[in-house]
User: Which sequence fits this backbone?
């Protein structure tokens, strides 16, 4: 699904009927294709970008494979600046990102029978100022860089993973959480608190959702790694948008954002660099939609 002609997408989004909640997916680099999306055309953005130095997606010039940590942060800040442009003034942006560790010195990582996607032909060097095996606060480096770039940083949500990936480490704890940051474009923005309230412990009422979410990961056999779980995305879309609003994911991956958007009667635009992932997304989306509509 390749498309480099910007005009058709711009025209399509501008004239997108509100009763058409199919999914639009573009195959290409988010750094380029996001420019084809009109200003103020998206109500809510939800994404999980490639993590730095964690996985090799086998695509040239991929985000996440930068040799320098701050180059990675800057690449994402630039993409997310465009996300802010395409958001409506009252729009929100939900960013899932995890921290990583500096390498113990190896330049590669072998295959893991429990997680085939962890094999890598490269490992980035230890960032300047850090040491081998240091915990790199990538999540917070990125969040604070986005804040400095103009975003309102509203929440840091802990995604606790009860079924987290086992680790064979012997000198630290097994990592069982990631971050979900809530950003807004403006000081005042659309947020439907009632849509995501939780039951009180005694079951007699409702309370505002807390900032620790216990949600299992979801396997994706076709991609050999856990994907964005639906239950992580669902509250973001429910709180950040209304039916028929446009949801945007600039790192679409296996298509979970589009699936949940359609289940909630929203429209969705995604960008994905790897055509194999788009094929996976097409198969997964087939349960709720016959095909992806923007073939280019």
Assistant:
């Amino acid at each position: 699904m390749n498309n480099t002609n910007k005009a058709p997408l711009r025209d399509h989004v501008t004239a997108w009927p509100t009763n058409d909640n199919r999914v639009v997916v573009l195959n290409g680099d988010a750094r380029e294709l996001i420019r084809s999306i009109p200003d103020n055309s998206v109500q809510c953005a939800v994404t999980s970008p490639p993590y730095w130095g964690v996985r090799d997606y086998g695509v040239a010039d991929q985000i996440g494979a930068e040799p320098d940590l701050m180059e990675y942060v800057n690449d994402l800040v630039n993409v997310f600046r465009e996300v802010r442009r395409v958001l409506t003034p009252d729009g929100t942006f939900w960013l899932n990102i995890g921290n990583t560790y500096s390498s113990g010195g190896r330049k590669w990582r072998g295959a893991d029978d429990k997680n085939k996607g962890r094999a890598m032909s490269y490992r980035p060097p230890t960032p300047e100022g850090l040491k081998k095996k240091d915990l790199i606060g990538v999540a917070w480096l990125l969040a604070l860089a986005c804040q400095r770039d103009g975003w309102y940083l509203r929440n840091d949500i802990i995604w606790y993973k009860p079924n987290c990936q086992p680790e064979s480490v012997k000198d630290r704890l097994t990592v069982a959480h990631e971050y979900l940051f809530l950003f807004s474009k403006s000081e005042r923005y659309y947020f439907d608190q009632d849509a995501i309230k939780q039951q009180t412990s005694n079951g007699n009422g409702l309370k505002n959702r807390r900032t620790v979410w216990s949600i299992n990961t979801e396997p994706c056999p076709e991609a050999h790694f856990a994907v964005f779980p639906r239950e992580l995305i669902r509250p973001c879309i429910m709180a950040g948008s209304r039916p028929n609003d446009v949801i945007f994911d600039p790192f679409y991956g296996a298509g979970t954002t589009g699936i949940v958007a359609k289940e909630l009667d929203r429209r969705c635009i995604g960008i994905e660099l790897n055509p194999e992932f788009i094929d996976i997304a097409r198969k997964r989306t087939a349960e709720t939609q016959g095909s992806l509509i923007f073939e280019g």
